[in-house]
Amino acid sequence: MDLRVEDKTTLMLDGGKLGERKVQSLLDHKALVIVIGKTLTPVLKNLVKKGKISFIEEDLARAERLGVRVQIVPEEPSARPMIAALADYWEERA
Asked: What are the per-10-residue average pLDDT scores of the chain (94 residues)?
């Protein structure tokens, strides 16, 4: 897989084993990673503790009930404020 995510903010919507593997791949490609979910694996918790990734604890099923829909955001600098606003929004509710 050709990932062009260096210095790009990426959202991972899975704090489990699958998300863990994907997060590691994103970090290997120098992405800035925010994980949104209800739980984290011990490895992901350690990455949060070390400041390597950010975590927003949010039940995605609850988010969906509130009308939140996942969107794929273009990898362009103009998208960063929108991603930051989304992260802030959910962080306030965690």
From this structure: 77 85 91 88 97 86 60 55 69 63
Q: What CATH fold (topology level) applies to the domain 9-93?
A: Rossmann fold (3.40.50)
Task: Identify the pLDDT of residue 65.
Answer: 65
CA distance 14 to 37: 6
For the chain, the structural domain boundaries read 9-93
The rounded distance, in Å, linking the Cα atoms of 48 and 1 is 25
